[in-house]
Amino acid sequence: MKEWYDAIKEAQSVEKLEEIRISVFGKKGVLAAEFAKMKSAVNEEKAQLAKELNTHKAALTDELTQRKVVLQTLELEANMKAEAIDVSLYRAKCQSGGLHPVMETMDRIIEYFVAMNFAVKTGNMLEDDFNNFEALNLPKYHPARDMQDTFYFKDEMLLRTHTSPVQIRTMMANKPPIRMIAPGAVFRRDYDLTHTPMFHQVEGLLVDEEGKVSFANLKFILEDFLKYMFGDVEVRFRPSFFPFTEPSAEVDISCVFCKGDGCRVCSKTGWLEVLGCGIVDPNVFDAVGYKNVSGYAFGLGVERFAMLIHHIGDLRSLFEGDIKLLEQFQ
Ligand code: PHE
User: Is the CB of 21 within 6 Å of ligand 1?
Assistant: First the structure.
């Protein structure tokens, strides 16, 4: 019998073990043959033989079960090793995207005005002369058009120079009151440290009954808005000119770099110009057929805001798609 114990110990696979089990315990197996021999044995021997055989039977069963467990474990380990995925082998360079600083700034501006109950309106980048200029009190050959030169197509179409045409279109399509902002890309013939041929604006318009909208209302909301965007800054209004507003003002904040002491960025003035605004010129209301109304309007460049918020020196760098620059704002 000893050779079967050895065979079990040496078995290297579950299949081999099964073969051994059949050879030992099967109908034609070794044990069956040994038990058969008992028939011819005499009585005393029979009992002794039966005892021996039963001991072997039990012991071999134990050996088989134990070896099976060992072999199964080994096989499982081998399989796991073979199928293992080595996650440390290749570290995929996974870069997560993020909002462009201009879009992030635009979102913040929109958030403020939406909270103030302004509707968000958009229009077409390809505009006609009427909506971009004429209706905004900028007749053909008016010198103020020079400040907003752009790319012209035939049929009096052009790349819009501001988002003010969205205000004209909104007024033409709706009755007053109006409370809206117009965010979007605009185009001008400019290219230097603080200007690019394409940039983004958010312009606002509020129209209500005659006598209801004052410069004080405009001043209040813009001061509140600028403090929301830039924190604790001083705000000042300077008289200015826009064809579509009268009176008009340019709005400055105290320099965010030198806190008003005067530095290179604010040209030693302590102030930074951030937006234009005014009371809507009656000629604009005439152009859209509004009667007995009053309103205010304002407009700002989103890139300029982003530059001041993130301390970016050259506005053009915002459009170069340089990951090294953009990553810093994520
Ligand atoms: N449309 C003006 C511009 O693009 C900005 C502006 C809007 C100024 C509304 C005053 C009132 O320069």
Answer: no
